[in-house]
Amino acid sequence: MAVKSVSIRIEEEMLEKIGFVADYEGRSVNSHILVLIRENIRAFETEHGRIEGDIRPDVNVKPSRK
Q: Which of 31, 38, 39, 41 could form a disulfide with 27 if both were Cys (CB 3.0 to 4.6 A apart)?
């Protein structure tokens, strides 16, 4: 599975707040954003049906350590 990198523009205050929440949850900002994306996909699929693809939103997708 290929892991892609995405860059986003985010207001500084929002980044600080998401960092606070991520730290509270014991995650990095990147990992926390992936959790939020998975939850959003899961909610969408629950309401509208499965989106075609091999990756399930309930699977923790992380690049393997080398």
A: 31
pLDDT under 50 in the chain at which residues? 63-66
The single residue listed with the structure tokens 């960092």 is: 19
Quote the CA–CA distance of 47 and 50 in Å, as a whole number: 9
Residue 3: partners with Cβ closer than 8 Å, 6 or more residues away: 61, 63
pLDDT at position 66: 46
Residue 57: predicted pLDDT: 62
Three-state SS annotation for the chain: CCCCCCCCCCCHHHHHHHHHHHHHCCCCHHHHHHHHHHHHHHHHHHHHCCCCCCCCCCCCCCCCCC
